[in-house]
Structures are given as structure tokens and as C-alpha cells.
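Form P-L/3: holo structure prediction, ligand 2'-O-acetyl adenosine-5-diphosphoribose.
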Amino acid sequence: MSQNKTLNPDLLKLLKESGNILVVTGAGISTSAGIIDFRSPGGLYSVAVERYNLPYPEAIFDIAYFHKNPAPFFRLSAELLLADIKPTPCHHFLVDLEAKGKIGILVTQNIDMLHEKAGSKHVIECHGSYRTGRCLSCGKRFEYKDFSGPLLKGEIPYCKCGGIIKPDVVFFGESLPESFMSLFYRRPKVDLLLVLGTSLTVQPVSSFALDYAPRIPSILVNRDPTPYDGRFSYVHHGELDDFAQQAWDNVLR
Ligand code: OAD
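OUTPUT (holo model):
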């Protein structure tokens, strides 16, 4: 864990003076809730091959591999969904930022639904979530409650037709939801880009955010450096909950 660091006063001033903020979040916002991220040391991709007996780490979210062997994804899903996960201080900070009318768009790459659980009203889940699912054979749509029984036991949920019900989590090799793709193509006007807790390695969300970064004021808060730090007006390397606390005290009070 990195040491808490005081935020740059100019970063706080920018945050305070900006409305219509585009917020983009990644796995780093949920690690203090107990969900490991993907690419940090000890993250999912460093343990997945051994833990789920995979040929390569990303296979757990690869649609071609899922068609051959869906079991590892459902094992992971049960672990994720059974864990008593609660939103973090940073999720709550974003709820208050939204309530103050300062968020124009909130895009998350996370499938954990913690933004919604915290109380954020308008969230675009660009990598989907478990809220709904679809039968891979007949295409029938399902709500979470329809397939949560087997899901929570780590078992494969099946449709009456015999097909596998796949939660609407976006795998590598699948299209992203229309709610995100329309943003991607429209690039709506926003006044500030605030990127929180992502390595910015996965497309197309990375290029969506980075297209804004040199054109408008931008802030990146992440524990570790990313290859794109130089594009941002302000970069803070630190813990997101600490960032949230300082931002609360200085921006929302
Ligand atoms: P990554 O694991 O790639 O990056 C998470 C970033 O969060 C890392 O750079 C960490 O330094 C940072 N981080 C972790 N904990 C933090 C904390 N407490 N405070 C501040 N920073 C922290 O995760 P994502 O960028 O979200 O896609 O990964 C993007 C996508 O890759 C995921 O949505 C997932 C994955 O494959 C799919 O599953 C489709």
C-alpha cells in the first residue's frame, strides 16, 4: 500500500471548479472492498492460471475459451458474488459528486455493480455486469434472480432449452454494450476527465478516455504509473480512498 500523499491544490481547485465531469473507473476503485484487480502483483491475472487451471490468464474472460470450458468463469463468479463486498469510500465520494450535479457521465469497467450499490444513479457499465444474462442457444433473456441459484454455487446455469445462460459480462471477443458504444462514437462534450483506478490497457475504453485527455483538463488517480500518465493535466499516484477523503474535504464541503 502506498503512503497517503497530499493532493496537489491545483488538482483540487480544478475538481472544485468543474461540472459536467466524465468519470472513468477501473478495478482499483474496488480493491479496498476486497476484490483483487487484474494486473497488479497478486492480481487476478497473476493467480488465474493456477487457481482456475487455465491455459493463459485472460482465458477466464475470453469468449472463445468460455465456449470450450465455461466452468472457470462460473467458479470465479461465485467467489466474487458470494464475497460480502461493500462499496468503498471512493464509490461513496462519486455518489456525492453526482448528487452535487458535477458528474456528466460515469463509465465503469467493473462488473461488480458497486457503483450502483453505493447509490450512483447513472452508471455506464462498459464491460457489462451480472444483472442480466442470455441463453447462448435460444437467446432467451434472464434477470439475475433467474440464474443466481446455480451461479452462487459456482455451477453453470442452464436454460430450459439446455443452453448455457451467460451473464451479460463482456468477454474479450464480444461487443461492448450500446450504451457505451454510442458514447464512444459521439464523444459528448465534457469539461473534465477524471480517471480512477485503471491501468488503461483495455480497449476501447482506454482510447475513449485518452482521446479526451490531451483536449480537456484531465486528472488520473492510480496507485501505479500507467503508460499514459503524460497525457493528463494532473496525475496522483496514491490510494483512491485517500484521494476520495481529501477530495470530499476540499471539493464537497
Ligand atoms: P487493472 O488491474 O489493469 O488496473 C487496476 C489499476 O488500479 C492498477 O494500475 C493499480 O495500480 C490500481 N489500483 C489498485 N488498487 C488501487 C487503490 N486502492 N487505489 C488506487 N489505485 C489502485 O484493472 P482495469 O484497468 O480495471 O475486463 O482492467 C480493465 C479490464 O481488464 C477489466 O475491466 C477486465 C480486465 O480484463 C474484462 O474483464 C472484459
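COMMENT: The chain is about 35% helix and 15% strand.
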